[in-house]
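Researcher: Next entry in the queue.
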Amino acid sequence: MKFLDLAKIYIKAGDGGDGCVGFRREKFIEFGGPDGGDGGNGGDVVIQCVDNLNTLIDYRYQQHFKAERGINGMGKNRAGANGSDCIVKVPPGTVVLAEDQETVLAEMTEVGQRFVVAHGGNGGFGNAHFKSATNQAPRHANPGLKGDEMTIWLRLKLIADAGLVGLPNAGKSTFLAAVSAAKPKIADYPFTTLHPNLGVVRAGDRDFVLADIPGLIEGAHEGAGLGTRFLGHVERTQVLLHLVDATQEDVGGAYRTVRRELKAYGGELAKKKEIVALSKIDAVDAETLTTRLAELQKAARKKPLALSGVSGAGVKEALFALTREIGRAKADEAETLEGTPKPWRP
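Model: Structure for this entry, 346 residues:
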């Protein structure tokens, strides 16, 4: 299945049905009068969060979604049926944006969540609605109202507990393949990863989801390389694992480059808890490794981990460090929710 995380679609809610102008005229019945029924309401366009979806690829081939129109009213006081809703199914983590791509209409984070993005028009009143003592034979009815129509954007931000960041060829995909059942593409050239990958990782008796995104380069926030488009997939993570290639000459510069891009992107990525690790340690000798660790510690102002996705050295320690930080973040979040005052209800 191809990965697509941004889609533009056109939606149109159903128009309301027209009211009916009708009169009761039956043989041998003394009293007639207006009996035109009301029109039915138009259907809504509903965004629904469903399971077993992890891409928006379906919306590359279908971009128009229209709900049913309400049925017109009929004689004998028969109201028209309401139009059926149009359901747009999206994966968890989808953000619904207005046409300007800035205004957030809804965030779909839980399976089963529903959001009415376009409301159907109300059905028109039939002439039976307007009868009164002074107007016993009204000859007019209301037309149905128009349903909402608009163009919206769907943007997918994968829901993961931890995210991998770093320059191209920092060993992110190799690390993900080593700790999970995911099978990302791995090669010895930059930008091997062209779309995010997810893997479920088990550390001790706890599981968490790890996201690997394409590498960042200097100037990514201005569109260099693959840009920062995929950084949205680590916005929802609790912690970042920043991998730096040990075979590079300037590991401190590599670390600072990625940190600048995270800060330029915004979204509070630069404020997230970060674990720094020197990867590919099996590709350098012991003396070089010691020097590179010291340089990285000076740049990051924290003691980095040392690991290798190929040999497995240091991988377990990195996983347990991620697990600890995820646990702390979730505990803090739960404590914050408990401390939030509940709304008053009469």
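Model: Residues 235 and 268 are 8 Å apart (CA to CA).
Researcher: Noted, moving on.
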